[in-house]
Amino acid sequence: MIVNSIVIKVASRCNLNCSYCYVYNLGDTTYLSQPKLMSDKDVKTLIKRVSDHCQEKNIKTFQFIFHGGEPMLQKKEFYIHFVNYANEVLSKDNIECIYTIQTNGLLISEDWCKLFNQLKIQVGVSLDGYKEINDKYRVDHKGKGSYDRVIAGLKIAQNNLDKKPGVLSVIDIESDPIRFYENIKGINVDFFDLLWPHANHDKPPKDYLEIKKETPYADWLIKIFDIWFAEKHKDKKTITLFDTFINLIIGNKLSGNEDFGREDNGLLVIETNGDIEVVGALKLCGNGFTKNDSNINKNSFSEALETKLANVYYKSHKLLNKKCLNCPLLEICGGGHIHTRYKKDKGFDNPSIYCNDYIKLITHIQNTIYDSLPEKYKEGSDKITFQEVIDYLDNLELNKIEAPVYTDALTSF
After folding, report:
1. For the CA atoms of the chain, what is the radius of gyration?
2. Do residues 149 and 196 lie in contact, with contact meaning Cβ atoms separated by under 8 Å?
3. Could you tell me which residue, 233 or 259, shows the higher pLDDT?
4. Are 122 and 102 in contact (CB under 8 A)?
5. What are the angstrom distances between the C-alpha of 98 and each of 61, 64, 154, 343, 368?
């Protein structure tokens, strides 16, 4: 198994207190036992682990994602030491290093931008749409909304970074999707991504309980997609979620990621104390769920990947339940993100809590692309509707389909 990127929790605390945060507010309290900041000593050990893994697996490009908590609570000197040391060690083996940082934007300044330019760190800013929506959930520890401060930081970044920052937004279906999209365009963002709220069968999105709709997330996203798809190229923003689906639909399988497609996941998380864990969203599944007694000070990445949870996560788009394996959209959806499939009594042996939303969104995008093609490219193919996929899956006699050999691994959590 190959790791080609790591999320580094350089700070385990945050200057915001977002109500949906899987680190602090969804039941996992392990952050309380973590050092507030990663040490320079652990940085050297971590880079050694990366170097060993890249040599072992013949990896020539490796991504470092600085994260938290809020990563800009870490001192500037930390990043100077980290990047310079990583470049020095990994360049000896001709390994290209890619650096990104995901921040809430509150601490962005001209000095920070100067440092990011110097170190070639790409910046992503978290912002959940227009002011009323963002400030419902993305609040500080006094309950004060963050929108105005984030926008101020974003503007500084836009004016001072060599490469413009992207924006990451968690979907809120109570917001107006058109207003959301116009707001994103209005703040002059060239590329952004849309995240599904962290949820699973034990902890469904509150909207599923309050809004009596079968596909509220797909319905919300489709309104944005239709406007975005119809825009002229020069006006079109890059929306990673839509680009991923389009590439998968047209057969570019390598466009898959943690959420969709059939490719293996190649990411690990390093906590501030050096613990090696799988993706943080799995903290939603239970307190300490991601803990596996692996640490950079005693384990290689390959050893960390030998744990049961890491193995299921790494192969999560292949180790699927019977319904997903027989779905006509399998190659595009890949079952969705693994944490959305969890249910305590069956582990990961379930479709995603967002299954119907995925089906509706994918079929809509697929059929929109189909309709846009010249007639000569439609020969021998046809559209498939949301209802046709739902009916097909509902009529599957799953009790007559043999369970995959790995089912016990999925249900063991």
Report:
1. 21
2. no
3. 259
4. no
5. 7, 6, 21, 36, 35
- C-alpha 173/C-alpha 171 separation (Å) is 6
Backbone conformation region of residue 321, classed left if phi is above 0, alpha if psi is from -120 to 50, else beta: beta
Tokens of 119: 């170190």
What would the pLDDT profile of 262-290 be if each residue is shown by its tens digit? 999 999 999 999 999 999 999 999 999 99
Distance between CA atoms of 64 and 388, rounded to whole angstroms? 42
Question: For the segment 336-365, what is each residue's pLDDT rounded down to a tens digit?
Answer: 999 999 999 999 999 999 999 999 999 999
The residue assigned the tokens 């903290």 is 283
Tell me the HSE value of 129 on the side-chain side, using a 13 A CA sphere.
21
Measure the CA–CA gap between 216 and 208, rounded to whole angstroms: 8
Compute the C-alpha angle 376/378/379, nearest 5°. Answer: 75
Question: According to the model, what pLDDT value does residue 329 have?
Answer: 98
DSSP symbols for 50-102 = HHHHHHHHT--EEEEEEESS-GGGS-HHHHHHHHHHHHHHHHTTTPEEEEEEE
